Amino acid sequence: MAQTIDDLNITDALGIRTTTPRRPLDVSGEIVAVDRLTLAQDTGVATTTWHADNWGGLFRLFWQPNINTVGTVALMVTTDGQVQVVSEADPTILRIQSHVGFGAARLEFWSDPQGSVTEWRPGGIHSVDAGGFTGGLAFFTNGSGQANRTAEIEAMRITNRNVGIGMTNPSQRLTLGSGNVLLPSANYGQDGNLYFGGTTDTGQIGMRLFGGNVNNGQFRSGFIDVRAGTPTDGLIFRVDTSYGSAERMRICANGNILVTGDIVLQNADCAEEFAVNDCGAIEPGTLMVLTEDGSLRPSTEAYDKKVAGVISGAGDLKPGLVLDKQPESRNRMPLALMGKVNCKADAQYGAIEAGDLLTTSPTSGHAMKATDPAKAFGTVIGKALKPLKTGTGLIPLLISLQ
Fold first, then answer.
1. Which of 144, 212, 322, 355 is most deeply packed, by most CB within 10 A?
2. Could you tell me the pLDDT band of residue 246, with boundaries at 50, 70 and 90?
C-alpha cells in the first residue's frame, strides 16, 4: 500500500522493498522523482551539488556551487535523442578526457541497437601522443565485411600540423601512403581540378611539384615549376639523374616552347593536312595530285606535274608530325611532305629497285618507276627504299619532290 511521508529521519539505513539495505538508501524497484534528483557532496550547504530533472520533457543535468544557488546546465538530452553538452567556461567546447594514460581519449560511432547481432562500429576518432607533449588525432574506420564490424583501421592522422593519409607518421603538410589519388571528372571547371599557390623553394611566385622520392631533397629525379609574372614564365620542366637541377623544357605564357635538348619523334614522316575529294574512299599510301581548287585527288596519269605527295599512315610508317590539323573538318587527310612513307606502287611499267626515282602512273593512286628523264622533271615524288619486282603493293618511299 502506498504511503505519503512528509518527513523522515533515518540514522542507519533505509531499505524500500528490501530487508537488507546495503547503503543508507537502498531501493529495489523504480524511483519516481517529480521535481528533481539532487546529489550533494556532503550535508553542508556550501559544497558543489549536482541535479538531474525533467524540464518540460527535456532531461537536464546541471550543477551549482552550493545547494542554495541557481544551477548551471551541463548536459541536456531531448526526446529525439539529441545531446547538448555545455561548458560554463566556453559553451563551444566538448571536452573528452582520458583517465588511463596520455593520448588515450576516444570518440566512437556505433550503429544499430546496442547488444544486437547487427551492432557495429563504422569508425572513430582517437587522440594520439607523439611524445614531448605533441598530440594529434587519428581517424579510424572498420574496414568492410561482417568479420570487421568492430575492427579499427587507421585511415588518416593529423599531428604537428601535418596530415597523413594511409600512414601514421606524416612528415609533410600532406603525406600520402601507398595508393592513388583520384579526382572527379571535370564539370565545366567546377571540379576535377587541383589548385596550389604560394612560392617555390627558391622564392619564386608559383608552385613546385617534385617527382620521385623527395627524402628531404636528396633523391629528386625531376620537378615542375609553375611560375607567374612575365610572358616567359610558365611551366618549367627540370629533369636530371640526381637533383633535377637542369631545365629541359619551358612552356611560356606567351605560347613559346623552349627545349634545351633534342626533340625525338618516334614515327616517320612530316605531314600536313589537305582538303581531299571523296575522303572516305581514299586509303593511306595513295599517291595524290592537286586539283584546280587546291584540294587533292588520287593520281591517274603518268608523269603528272600536279603530283603533291602520299597520304600518310599506311602500314607500319605513321606520321611523326602533322601540320595544319583541323579536327573540326572531316574532309581532310594528312599528306606526307618529308621523310619516309609507305606508298602504293605498280611494277607493270617497270620493275622497281631500291634507289629508283618514282613518279605517277596510269594506275589510280599508284607510283611507278620514272624511266623517261625528260618527262620525270617536276613529276618525281621520291626515291624507292625497297624493290617491287612485279604487280602492285606498298613500298617504303623517301619523299623528295623534284
1. 322
2. confident
